């Protein structure tokens, strides 16, 4: 006797993914996964950039040169390059819950050890190992793509990623405040900054246990249980890896993401020091101004995800791609202007505008990522996320390491790089949906089913391993947009079902 279908608080499609996104709900498993993912990612972001707003104090204590500070900034984002790719594979094989919590717990000791850094080398090392935790971004996006259906997946990814990224701005406020409270209670400043690191370390640790205890990998259960019951196939890592790495669309998104999220990481590392030094501000004021850059994620990245879903309803995947290109290019324009503005008030205004567009582009990017591959979603997410960190490393190496360029010149050149590295979006093409300049293929087999099932071998299909991809192809028909050609796009294909 078959068990009755599960009941959910939110309406779902044939994969039991939620077709609605209710921000203020904590209903299990969909919205609970959302809140656990963004809070844990937020905690990791706070830890990774906790040192940035305290650099003026730390550099005096450890005798750091500008090169030392630049190297530490690079170290904080470089570790996550390979960690993000590995995290994507781990999500595909073990599930986002276990993969995320494990990494958070493995990197928490590095945050605690920040308090005992005693030299430029040890400071660089703790920032390097702490930065690995930024790979939780991949598990966040994978988790949302596993829980939410095509019409709202951009929104879910955008809000979860954006609110997690808020940690980059929040830490600009939190760490100076914590430092100030400790110092005002009679602790010397060179000891106060060390004690302050226990706050993000503890927060990060607690978030990992929350994910383990309250989280669930998929709408129907955890990976281990689903594989044990036979409801989920035990996939082969080699094929998951292969189909992810051979899909050129993932590589293009990795490059372009390097110049929206990568730029955001680079700016998080230098913006407080930039305002502190250029406009002769005190530490607290510089931190507040710098915080506004990261805090724009409260609405900018979520706005990008929401915008991606809105344009997709009318123009499909082509609308998602065009909107991403326009928004990210405008971000590059504002970045160029930021480097040219010489007044404090003007710099703040332009910085906020720059942050809104560059962060919205991040949300727009992950409105596209879930559709690149169904079988290798984690690998493609990891590649794209890793590209963000590569962009941050390259940007800091070229423009913000040492004294070759002033900060303002580096910011201007970074803006030019954003515009240039966004152009490859023109090359992305989906046979079933088209690209920015071309419509969908007229071939009879250019369908969602053909695209996603091509990732499975015939012997795997015989065993039914492709069923999840088949359901996903049915639910992604919405990416054709509002205008459907009745000749080349039959209207009687299976549409998403609500359970």
Automatic annotation (TrEMBL):
Residues 33-432 form the Major facilitator superfamily (MFS) profile domain. Residues 472-499 are annotated as: Disordered. It is found in: Endomembrane system. GO terms for cellular component: endomembrane system; membrane. InterPro entries: MFS, MFS_dom, MFS_trans_sf, NO3_transporter. The chain crosses the membrane at residues 38-57, 69-86, 98-117, 124-143, 163-183, 195-215, 248-267, 319-341, 348-372, 378-399, 411-430. It is a multi-pass membrane protein. GO terms for molecular function: nitrate transmembrane transporter activity. Keywords: Membrane, Nitrate assimilation, Transmembrane, Transmembrane helix. The keyword Transmembrane applies. This is Major facilitator superfamily (MFS) profile domain-containing protein. It comes from Quercus lobata (Valley oak).
